[in-house]
Amino acid sequence: xxxxxxxxxxxxxxxxxxxxxxxxxxxxxxxxxxxxxxxxxxxxxxxxxxxxxxxxxxxxxxxxxxxxxxxxxxxxxxxxxxxxxxxxxxxxxxxxxxxxxxxxxxxxxxxxxxxxxxxxxxxxxxxxxxxxxxxxxxxxxxxxxxxxxxxxxxxxxxxxxxxxxxxxxxxxxxxxxxxxxxxxxxxxxxxxxxxxxxxxxxxxxxxxxxxxxxxxxxxxxxxxxxxxxxxxxxxxxxxxxxxxxxxxxxxxxxxxxxxxxxxxxxxxxxxxxxxxxxxxxxxxxxxxxxxxxxxxxxxxxxxxxxxxxxxxxxxxxxxxxxxxxxxxxxxxxxxxxxxxxxxxxxxxxxxxxxxxxxxxxxxxxxxxxxxxxxxxxxxxxxxxxxxxxxxxxxxxxxxxxxxxxxxxxxxxxxxxxxxxxxxxxxxxxxxxxxxxxxxxxxxxxxxxxxxxxxxxxxxxxxxxxxxxxxxxxxxxxxxxxxxxxxxxxxxxxxxxxxxxxxxxxxxxxxxxxxxxxxxxxxxxxxxxxxxxxxxxxxxxxxxxxxxxxxxxxxxxxxxxxxxxxxxxxxxxxxxxxxxxxxxxxxxxxxxxxxxxxxxxxxxxxxxxxxxxxxxxxxxxxxxxxxxxxxxxxxxxxxxxx
Length: 641
Hints:
The protein is mainly alpha-helical.
């Protein structure tokens, strides 16, 4: 602050609280951006290129620094004839002050004949929108960037210039980088908010940008390091491939006829799982080694986990089958990974991260609400589910501190987590005497946003046990009939504001069902899925599920079975002998099984992203039925909370 002349003229500002002084300092910089100290400018440039540009590499740092140098020279030389001609550079240089950049310099950018500059400007505004508290602004700005790419024909390989010289080859690569940055932003936002894509994959003919370092682009050598080499864009390129797989999933699950024609099919899911497994096997090679960067392996795995989560949409009619078990595992894992990295202060897109965490936490609560104990698999009873609910509560409490208008998200989640029993017992039968029910609820004092809920205080204060389950022989009742009237009234009051933030109609549906309907009971739906006893004792028959297995004739059994067996295992000899011959081929043209892809996993096996990347990762026997995913190393205690 002492470096600013105005601050020196008003010594009383030093009496202000630290936050007020910082606000005053930033206000002055917005008025006189040329007063920013050189070291601050250098720091801001590093922050952008080390974080945002590593994920969306549509700018070359050397090119930006040349713009910055010209702009600084322009500011000190007011008589230069190029002053007005180079006004557009002020947009990129002054993006730290968004309103000033947009209001004063964006028109100058759009007056330039270079369409690449236009797209880069829209992408800069889209990245800025990721930090706004409005999901509508995020979706509209990203959609505008994609539409501008379409207008500029960046999505068409036939519209690219001929690669006759170094300048044209550089333009081709930068066009591709810009388009695929817009594509990944679009898939990120549309996946979280469940909105239609701004451009369909069938309309795209341009390939991904090449795995070439920025230096090779600028010196004109264009030496490709090959698909296996690691460059400055390798992690972003690998992330793009995962977004392409995510797009394939959402192209199916967002169809209007998905529930009727696709939800009960397994071949397309097997195909997707094979592609995801192949992608995951290469992740450790292309990701960053620094655990605190947003391109580290486990942070990129959030995109992978979202792909797994998008494979199923839990509803009251399918949650008792594989959809519920799958959703619980994918949701649990995504929340715990996010919590780990939030502890490092690494939240690359906080608003979408907030909506994503709220949505994923809601899915877990919905599965618990919609699935009677009789139909719950071991995944429901894992301690990781409780840990995920706690972690989600912390995640929401921390992020909603940024924006007052988002606190309803945290309030609604805490309300639902308090009302919905996180554990219920199966009803007694003549051969199974009654067992005490551990009905764990997150206590209402978690509504306090200023309290960061550690594992200790949740264990000591926020979890209580009851035995509220009413049971009869032959038919079980739920722990409670429905959420309380008081909770329902509070949910109704907050829901309109939550709808405007979440946008995802499936998540809104789940909240409305939990708010207005009774807890589903055993006989409410004719669920073909396994009971908890079947799933946990290895007697699950894939044919009994509404989701057929991958068609490979793989069952779960053997190993002695029953109470006296040593554990149920896959018959690997039978698998290897029959898998290739019976591999399902989809009748839909957009799903064709390439022979080069790894063997797809049966749907009753949830793939672990933490298996080794060598040949053992593709072995289905590496996981036992119902096995809970765990983080590698010493993270099983989640002491990072």
